Amino acid sequence: MLKVEQPTTGAEKAHLHRLGHLIGRLGHAVVRNPRRVVAIWGIVLVLAGLASFLNGPFKDPIPPEMLGADEPSVIGAALAKQAFPEYCATTDAVLIFTREGGFSTSDRDQIANIAHALKAAGEGAEKTPWFVKSHTLDPLLTSRLLASDEKQHPAAAMIMVGYNLPHDSDASVRQVEKIEQIAHPLLLEGLRMEITGTGGLGRDEALANDVAHKRITFCAIAAVLVVLLLVYRAPLAACVPLLCVGASAFVATQVLKLLQTYGAPITSEELIYLVVIVFGTGTDFALFWLSRFDEELA
User: Phi then psi for 192, rounded to 5 degrees?
Assistant: First the structure.
């Protein structure tokens, strides 16, 4: 049988007494003013829902660098970007063009138009310009960026768009979306385009993170609901702490997203962890709180 260690010193006993007294006072305040507590929670939820209208200047937050500015690799990368900006971009969005049976003359002309459109848009970008590499812009790259089939007929082409943003940042995801919005309407029927490279990978990872966040939230709610139903054997009693925990997770998520727009180093992965932590600790605290409440009633 497990033995629970009891407080031995006077300081420990006093601390536990103050803690129990604090919890008791909070519990009595909630019981005596239920409408006021519900109204306060309602106001907090409304403010959290309106947090998106108070976003800071960082619409697309960039996660902080893991390495310091004095690291040799960081210094070398900065020098390379300064001397060779077109060839040493942090992230590359690689556009691959193919057509079954090979390219027609119209396909090759349209790929050239896409390259020129991307170049013009990149040069005119205010915040983060991009650099375009294509065989149509630089004939010396034809052997590297234009592939031929067995009959030496052009069958695939590649356009590389480089920019200086971390590939896993929200800003990079928006950059890839802009590139796709420029190139996709110019495609001819039957001409296939896919985006890969570190930029495309970062965009797909961001979409996968969003799906994972929704799945984890659903699984957390389902798991907590099952645990509460097994403990209380009453749907209403199980839903009360679940609603409280869900409201807490919503408010915490909105607050962190708001802080993220003001430059706080918060990543999408941390928001996913937040859901698990809040639902886990919140459920544990709810069980403790309700058990103490039942003791007081008894």
Answer: -95, 140
Instruction: Give the integer Cα–Cα distance in Å for 252 and 79.
Output: 41
Q: What is the pLDDT of residue 67?
A: 64
Nearest-Å Rg of the Cα atoms of the chain is 28
Render pLDDT for 153-169 as a digit per residue (tens, 0 to 9): 888 999 999 998 888 88
Bridge partners of 146, per DSSP, are 157
What's this model's pTM, rounded to 2 decimal places?
Answer: 0.69
Give 59: exposed, middle or buried? Use CB within 10 Å, 0-12, 13-18, 19+: exposed
- The contacts found for 98-106 with CB under 8 angstroms, 24 or more apart, are 98/155, 98/156, 98/191, 98/192, 99/155, 99/190, 99/191, 99/192, 100/190, 102/149, 102/151, 102/153, 102/154, 102/155, 103/153, 103/154, 103/155, 103/157, 106/188
Distances (CA, A) of 53 to 49, 257, 258, 295: 9, 12, 9, 44
159 with 95: CB under 8 angstroms? yes
By C-alpha distance, which of 13, 37, 27 is closest to 295? 27
Contacts of 246 (CB under 8 A, 6+ apart): 221
pLDDT at 49 over 70: yes
Beta strand 146-148 with 192-196 is unpaired
Lookup: tokens for 213: 């966040």
Residue 126 neighbours by CB distance under 10 Å: 5
Copy the structure tokens of residue 279. Answer: 């639902």
Helix then strand count (H, E) for the chain reads 9, 5
Which of 25-34, 167-176, 249-258 has the least mean pLDDT? 25-34
